[in-house]
Amino acid sequence: MSGPAEQWAWQLQDERLSLSEKFVLVYLARRAYYDDGCGAWPSVNTIAAHCHCTRRSVLRALKRLQELGYLREGDQELAARNPRSHEPIPRGHRSKVWDVVMKGAQTEPEDITDPGETDAGKDVPAKPSTAEPSRSKECAG
Question: H or E stretch including 72?
């Protein structure tokens, strides 16, 4: 579901990753609910079936990806309800939610300027403030 996260995972070049670890990472990135890689909750059996490996290989890959910093536990409330029926899922039957940590991923366009170029003598418009406006006391409650 998450194109940017999946693309990042495919392009990731880390010689420390085994083939099964790479496929598990790509699959989780593909299943992420958000574009930044957060909110993937397929079961271990589902991951194993789609990555053509054993359940045990998936568990080892998940542990290793956490150790390397490519995965972390996500918001477990995402798996609390069935996405189709919206019925609650009992705690013992929920899949673990994972967040893919997209290290080094570019999330915003870079500001490209020539290092030899300066703004001296140019009429450069001021950049608009990106800070959130302050909230009034009435809205803060």
Answer: strand 71-73
What tokens does 127 get?
A: 């950049």
Q: What are residue 81's DSSP bridge partners? A: 88
Helix/strand/coil for 28: helix
Task: Give the pLDDT confidence score for residue 126 in this predicted structure.
Answer: 46
* pLDDT at 112 (0 to 100): 39
Pair of tokens at residue 131 = 């800070």
* pLDDT band of 104, cuts 50, 70, 90: low
CA atoms within 13 A on the CB side of 60: 10
In whole angstroms, what is the distance from residue 102 CA to residue 72 CA?
Answer: 11
Amino acid at 4: P
> For 100, how many CA atoms within 13 A lie in the half-sphere containing its CB?
33
Per-residue model confidence (pLDDT) at position 84: 83
Note the pLDDT of residue 20. Answer: 94
